[in-house]
Amino acid sequence: MDKSKIEKIQSGIKKYQYLRQQLFVTDVSTNPDFQRMFNGFFRMGRRTQAYYNDYYRYLQQHKMTGISFADALTYLYLKHGRLEMSFVSKMVALVDPAFPIWDSVVTKGHFGIIAPNINVKNRLQKGIEKYEQYRYCYDTYMQSDEARKKIAEFNTLFPKTDITDVKKLDFMLWQER
Fold it and tell me: How confident is residue 78, by pLDDT bands cut at 50, 70 and 90?
């Protein structure tokens, strides 16, 4: 892995660990520093302030009990009319690092899975099904020799990070974009 990718991952690990730590000690619905860091780290595209308010309020309300992808996706879809699979997966994965992040380049490039088109009937339900399909494929991939090699490489490059193998693989796959 080249030096620039290593530096990006190292920087990302620090930001990720900060966000995980802050998630449980601050009110994320009112903390602009947390929101700015989250938006930058996860590359949250521009949305209305109302969307962000609802997003961070939902995260705050559910961070201690866990966040269901289906419930969060449904809530934001019904409230704002947008199927935000990536945004919702980032919320879910920050609360529970056993869940992979939906990144369209990774999901399509590595797993051949794409989000449902805007004109698809039952789009919300199809989005939930696609994420479950992605989780299944991701879990299966985690058992492969290729994934084990990527995790081993991560562990060699970044020892003592104290993050899950799912997150390690997220970092590695994201760099292969």
Answer: very high
The fraction of the chain above a pLDDT of 70, given in percent, is 99
Q: Characterize 3-34 residue by residue with b for buried, 16 or more Cβ atoms within 10 angstroms of its Cβ, and e for exposed.
A: eeeeeebeebbeebeebeeebeeeebbebeeb
Convert the pLDDT of each residue in 149-167 to its tens digit. 999 999 999 998 889 999 9
Say if residue 135 is exposed, middle or buried (CB neighbours under 10 Å; 0-12, 13-18, 19+): middle
pTM for this predicted structure: 0.89
Distance of alpha carbon 116 from alpha carbon 114, whole angstroms: 6
- Using DSSP, state whether 137 is helix, strand or coil: helix
Pair 165, 144: CB distance under 8 Å: no
Q: What tokens were used for 132?
A: 């479950």
CA–CA distance, 19 with 12 (Å, rounded to integer):
10
- pLDDT, position 68: 94
Distance, in Å, from the CA atom of 132 to the CA atom of 137, rounded to the nearest integer, reads: 9
Please state the domain extents for the chain: 3-175
User: Smallest Cα–Cα separation from 171: which of 86, 103, 92?
Assistant: 103
